[in-house]
Amino acid sequence: MSAFDELVGYQRETEALGQVMGRLGWDQETVMPRGAGEQRAEEMAALEGVLHARRVDPRMGDWLAKIEDDDLDAVGQATMRIVRKDYARNTKVPGELAAEIARTVSKAQGIWAKARANEDVSAFLPVLKTVIELRQQEGAAISDGGDTYDALLQDYEPGGSAAEISATFDAMRPRLVALRDEIWQRQEPKGVTGSFDTNAQMTLSDKLANVFGYDRELGRIDKAVHPFSSGSGLDVRITTRTSDDDPFNCIYSTIHEVGHATYEQSINKDYLLTPLGEGVSMGVHESQSRIYENQLGRSRAFTGWLFGQMKDSFGDFGISNEDDFYAAVNRVGKGYIRTESDEVQYNLHILLRFDFERALMSGDLLVSDLETAWNDRFKSDFGYAVDKPSNGCLQDVHWSVGLFGYFPTYSLGNVYAGCLYEALRNAVPQLDDQLAQGDTQPALEWLRTNLQTHGGLRAPRDTIIHACGFEPSAEPLLMYTEKKFSGIYGL
User: Fold this and answer.
1) For residue 145, what pLDDT is reported?
2) Which of 119, 146, 173 is the last residue of a domain?
3) Based on CB atoms within 10 Å of each CB, which residue in 6, 34, 56, 289 is the most buried?
4) Do 207 and 133 belong together in one domain?
5) Domain co-membership, 353 together with 391
């Protein structure tokens, strides 16, 4: 057996154990007993210790030294690209630190959830400080004296840098703010009214998951405080949430997470339990969830079909025609919650978090000052004050579980989705007619063929270039957003 075959066999076992750890995380967010947090933290730490030991096993170094990339095909070379990168990173992190991070973030997630429910920032800040200190240590270990934040960013967007992302965000901010301010001078569209049965929401959620290609033989839908997708290959699970007075929360959380899940389900099964068998980056991943949710799911064509489904599910909900429903789905209103934000303001939420997490990691912002800094910045950016912590600095789970470097990939995903949508419309000229019938399959097939099936075969930016045929930039997203909302609001 060649060194490459031995490495791939070993890697499959490591990937399988990683999936088991992911399943523990899913369980913690969905059905784990509330009192099990302390034990789960120890379980996560123990499993992370096993995983870390495998990832830095001396045999890995021996195999890597023997393998000549020129002897491999394109798939083998892509596999080696990822394995070499990961091995170089993992060997710089002490096993004790990896285990302690896993233990701490498992505990921190529960503390955050309780603090959020109690509107008690002070209960969360001590453990957040510990999480940040641990991630700072990790970043320092893997950065080789370079920028700590950039080092952590590689876990989510390989090849990305804070400087490049800042330049993209700086180009987006003024046009989004200008559009938002123009919209706010117009009358806000009418929203839905009434109470929406939870079971009816979940039934419609199931139907929409099917419409957007989610294979329930390889997955399941549960409820969680913060919707997410988990797993890859043959076991890809999603969660959603319901609100008695806002059915869009459930509808678009489901469509969003299905975008993530179908990406994982569509990857070439030859890559199962290999480094190529998962989405190549969180930015590319987010491009799938956002194009499903927004460019497809919130389009005039698809909302026309969805209007009929809503009437069948809920009867009279205060809106009488498809145009008004389209406007209601795309309302640009005041609100605090990132995940519930409209397309115009969503990226402004991410820009705020991007700036704060860099400041926290660099030490320019103390954890004790986070709530005040957040509230001040939010009022400056959005024009009104945060009313409670769960609508402010406690609303997101990400920092409690140590995901520093993750937030900017949400906006990168929006940028990538804008590029993909431009290419998709050129490739599928009958797209609107199809979506108006609730037929997403031609659009989904284009995404599967041009992006999803390839998994980690190409680097993130190259994945988008391959699918679109051009270099990604923010311009397609901005043009799409300006055109869409100018039409809705008569600008």
Assistant:
1) 83
2) 146
3) 289
4) no
5) yes
φ/ψ of 223, rounded to 5, equals -110, 145
392 and 314 within one domain: yes
Give the dihedral sign, CA 43/46/49/51. negative
Average pLDDT, the chain: 95
Is 134 inside any structural domain? yes
Is 234 in the same domain as 139?
no
pLDDT digits (tens, 9 = 90+) for 428-468: 999 999 999 999 999 999 999 999 999 999 999 999 999 99
- Measured CA to CA in angstroms, residue 319 lies from 192, 245, 490 at distances of 6, 14, 20
Q: How crowded is residue 39: how many other Cβ atoms within 10 Å of its Cβ?
A: 12
Q: In angstroms, how far is CA 428 from the centroid of its own chain?
A: 26
Going by C-beta distance under 8 Å and a sequence separation of 6 or more, which residues neighbour residue 303?
Answer: 297, 322, 325, 326, 329
Active site residue 422: no
Of 95, 116, 146, which one is at a domain's C-terminal end?
146
Number of domains in the chain: 2
Answer yes or no: are the C-beta atoms of 372 and 121 closer than 8 Å.
no
Query: Using CA atoms, how far apart are residues 481 and 491, in angstroms rounded to an integer?
Result: 12
In a domain, 152, yes or no: no
What is the spatial distance between Cα 29 and Cα 299, in angstroms, rounded to a whole number? 31
Q: Within 13 A of 421's CA, how many CA atoms are on the CB side?
A: 29
Domain limits for position 181: 162-489
Q: What is the pLDDT of residues 196-255, one digit of tens each?
A: 999 999 999 999 999 999 999 999 999 987 789 999 999 999 999 999 999 999 999 999
350 vs 94: CA distance, rounded Å = 31
Are 273 and 224 within 8 A, CB to CB?
Answer: no
The continuous run of DSSP H or E covering 260 comes out as helix 247-266
User: Using one digit for the tens of pLDDT, what is the confidence trace for 354-363?
Assistant: 999 999 999 9
For the chain, what percent of residues have pLDDT higher than 90? 94
Catalytic residue among 29, 48, 257, 343: 257
Same domain, yes or no: 268 and 123: no
Instruction: Give dist(CA 372, CA 38) in Å, integer.
Output: 31
> Is 385 in the same domain as 482?
yes
